[in-house]
Amino acid sequence: MTGKRLNQNKPQAALLGLAFDAEDGHKRITRGPNFLLAGGSHDTHGKMQETAIKINEHLDRKGQQLGDIPMHELRDIFSDIHG
Fold it and tell me: Which domain holds residue 23?
């Protein structure tokens, strides 16, 4: 087989944010490091963006990757962000 292969031993993870409250006809999509956000009103999509960015900042400060942390730790990060 030729070509690059992903390191299959390293966990891969991404955040997926979906919102369905847009009533203005806009289709909002934002991609970033380890996240994809789609839909939502202007405000809702902005909140999803802010959350994804803050999660990445938190992980960067700790030198971690999303795929490296257990689900309960991700829940704690969400809780810290949204108090």
Answer: 15-82
54 touches 34 (CB < 8 A): no
| Domain assignment of residue 1, yes or no | no
In angstroms, the CA 49 to CA 38 distance is 10
Q: What's the average model confidence in pLDDT over 48-58? A: 97
Residue 47 lies in a domain: yes
d(CA 56, CA 52): 6
Please give the average per-residue pLDDT across 1-17, as a whole number: 70
CA dihedral 48, 64, 72, 54 (to 10 degrees): -20
The 10s digit of each residue's pLDDT in 20-34 is 999 999 999 999 989
Name the maximum alpha-carbon separation found in the chain.
49
Check residue 67 and report its DSSP letter: G
Characterize the bridge pairing of strands 15-19 and 35-39.
parallel
Tokens of 44: 């809702």
